[in-house]
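Obj.: predict assembly geometry.
Materials: sequence records (below).
Method: joint structure prediction, all chains together.
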Amino acid sequence: MFGYSGKILHIDLTERKHWVEEKPEEWYKLWIGGVSMATRLCWENITPGCDAYSPENPICFANGIFAGTPVPVGGKYGLASKSPMTGLIGDSLSGSWLSIALKRATWDGVVIHGASEDWIYVFIDDDRVEFRNAENLLGLGTFATEEAIRDDLADDQVRSATIGPAGENMVRYANVTNDGRQAGRTGHGSVWGSKKLKAVSVRGTHGIEVADPATLNKLSFDITKAAQGPHTSKYRILGTSTNVLNMNKLGLLPTRNYQEGVFEDAEKVSGEFLHENHKVKTIACAQCPIACEQMSVVKNGPWAGAMTGIEYECLFANGPNLGVNDMNAVIKLIEVADQGGMDAMSMGISISWAMESYEKGVLKKEDFKSEQYPDGIELSFGNGEGAVAVAEMIRDQVGIGKLLGQGTKIASETIDKERGTESYKWAMHAKGLEPAGYEARGLKTFALGSAVGTRGPCHNRTAAYDPDISGEVDRFSVDETRGELAKSSEEYAAVYDTLPLCKFIRRCFTGSADRAGAWPMIVDLINATTGWDLKYEDIDPIGERAHTIKKAFNIREGWKREDDVLPYRWMHEPMTIGPSAGHFTSSEELEYLKDLYYKAKGWTEDGMIPKKKLESLGMPDVAEQVGV
Amino acid sequence: MAVSTSKFNYIDCDPELCIGCQICEYVCSYTKNGEYNTYRSRIRTVRVDEVLITAIACRTCENAPCVIACPQKALSQDPNSGTIRIDPKKCDGCAWCIDACDFGAISMNHETRLVEFCDQCENEPEGPQCVLWCPKEALALTTPEKRAQKSRRELIKQEVIGPKK
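Observations (raw structure tokens):
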């Protein structure tokens, strides 16, 4: 077998032992890698219905087919556990050298069971597993932890996925971080914290062989060169932060906790401003010839020297969404999140909920007391200094940070119960996860994609905003095409997330990113790596199967049709200014859209999956457990 | 930092352009050993502090310290190219050359117990494969004098036209 070793490593933190599970080639042909294989491993190894913080919730890594080869943007791994944010599948991807080290250590996947009594980190040294004391790493930031481990093991090629102080303190939306990249969104870091697992470090020394290296090299070389052209210039030059002004023009830039879609100071927190005034270097993930990460620094003022990579989602959440127009504060906020190891989107949106709550009198100045601010903080929109202080309280889990570190769902429910208020009306979450930086009130297809997202509302798992923004459909109304569009978009994304390949390469194969443009070369890449004989028509089922196993996981954890919703504000309040003013998605519209979507997926009206559907996708064991 | 005084060509990396993707290492290990394995690469990327990134291969030093340090007289320097030759019969894998190299550019092959050096892909018709593949043109086969000339030209451009964007 090429491209795979056929081996999954199981590690038990409770018993401090490990064992090897061998998988047949047919299993790999179904699950491939990335989020698909990670979710499948989670399906196989979790105790259904367990608490996300219990030892029965496993940490599941899955490698990619192309990790460690020259295939551009193929160095990524998938990570899955039950999410403490949603109680459903938490599946993330991270661009990384970790996947390559794992591949060279000959592991297709790693499943970590149980929980440790003392803080440890796990060192996977080829086929040897070591449980090492992590007491001296506690409190270190994410990058500092990686460096400390490389020093400890005296090898620069040791790669680590770590948690920062936020994960140690079990901030619910803490991330797992490697090489400055995040396996983000669904709270993996707090799951690791619940197991007292500070890091997973890997050294892999074996070479990687593929079925047809001459073909793979030729294809990879051509894609590498194509990736320097116009198809990636947006990512290479300004990075995704260029979206700030684009979204603002469309009235879709979430502003002041998603009250409006237009920010009057968008210029001051734009990708263009960042490029001119703060950017120090563009860097790449492992095996990536594009390089989109814009490393940016604060040059003066109280946060001088703060530096981190800035991209659009973090930028909107901590800039316009907080009403903050000071780029120095935005960079500092994102640095606190990245080095502290927490999701900068959920953090920013939790703070914006607190700001609106303060302005509406639900939270008071004295609620924000800390050692540094004994009288509290006047946390109005635009208060960048206050936001930084609150972000650090979240990371350290002190004062109001304890509440805001739970995310907007639990924070609003707690306060409303305690004070008899209605802050749930501006708690921006669905299924417990904070949404992306696209105002879905002006994007009806994306509203559907967000509502039905298996890990909550997400911009990575669906690109259903594309037909809305391109004008293929009217973005302010609904019609019978939307179910099919939402299905098509999420399954297209699932193919990339499964291989995995970064979606930023999608136009570099032939210039056209649609299935006809991308799938033929993806077929060639898979076949040259594995020696398989896949055809064009085999690619779509990879995406459908990946999406279906996530949905099946959710059904087994108790998902119901009524869980596919949008944040209250998106369903009840229109925006009042800008090109998207006057619109929202009513309950009637959303239910109509969900009907269309479930039908397009071949599911029942309740959103359940027929046995036959699951069997046709090659998962009879899943059909037996959740099929109807 | 240690500086090569060589008149010979070597693989140079511009740290301003290097993005740290490591593609050079995959291509090198494949070209020289038929497998993708950064441990077997003769060029190494280095990342310090997230944004300080470059790649290093043999600098073909004049009076190369590795050759002088070798107690087995297993190393010699090609008088034309400056690349380091190894006599596999004599090398016993003691790693003194690795110690002696100011650039950390020599690596040990743990299977053969022999040290390995960048030979600038002398057997490849297209020349060094890392230079060919580098997506950002950060790598170049150059000499210290050519590099100095490039720096002088950059300087004058910056002084007349302004800093490059």
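Conclusions so far: Chain A has a mean pLDDT of 97.
To do: check interface contacts against the pulldown list.
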